[in-house]
């Protein structure tokens, strides 16, 4: 795998899941920052000029849900990968139809997540 010099944002209200994803990404030299809500993520974006290369996003979040965040970022072309315990085919279909680069259910296979990120970013 090629090293990514950009940050991947992990947005999940379950701190243990966010930590696990960050550890997994670090193990393959991908830098990541985690956020516990969509509002926290949006607030951080307004304070910095840097945008993440990709967003790993839970569907069920307090406040703004994952589909709403995806809708807001659709015009940017930023790859969004859902990692969620929400097993609703309608939500999956909507996320993918709206341009999600992937939709993985928890618990997920780390190799599949890494491969999905690499495909979304064109890194091989």
Please describe what this structure looks like:
This protein is α/β, with parallel strands linked by helices and 124 residues long. It has one domain: Response regulator (Rossmann fold). The chain has helices spanning 15-27, 38-47, 66-73, 89-97, 110-121, and strands at residues 7-11, 31-35, 54-57, 80-84, 102-105. A five-stranded parallel beta sheet has the order 2-1-3-4-5, with helices on both faces. Helix 3 (66-73) links the parallel strand 3 and strand 4. It is globular, with a radius of gyration of 13 Å.
Summary of the model, kept short:
The protein is an alpha/beta fold and 124 residues long. It has 5 helices and 5 strands, in the order E-H-E-H-E-H-E-H-E-H.
The main β sheet shows up as:
5 strands, parallel
Record field, number of beta strands: 5
- The name of the CATH architecture is 3-Layer(aba) Sandwich
- CATH topology-level fold name: Rossmann fold
- Multimeric organization: single chain
Number of domains: 1
Which spans have pLDDT < 50 for at least 5 consecutive residues?
none
So, the CATH homologous superfamily? Answer: Response regulator
- Class in CATH? Alpha Beta
Given helix and strand content, the structural type is: alpha/beta
The side-by-side strand order for the widest beta sheet comes to: 2-1-3-4-5
Number of helices: 5
The helix/strand series, from N terminus to C terminus, equals: EHEHEHEHEH
Could you give the distance between the termini? 6 Å
The geometry reads as: globular
Strand content: 15-25%
Q: On the 0-100 scale, what is the average pLDDT? A: 90
Helix content: 40-55%
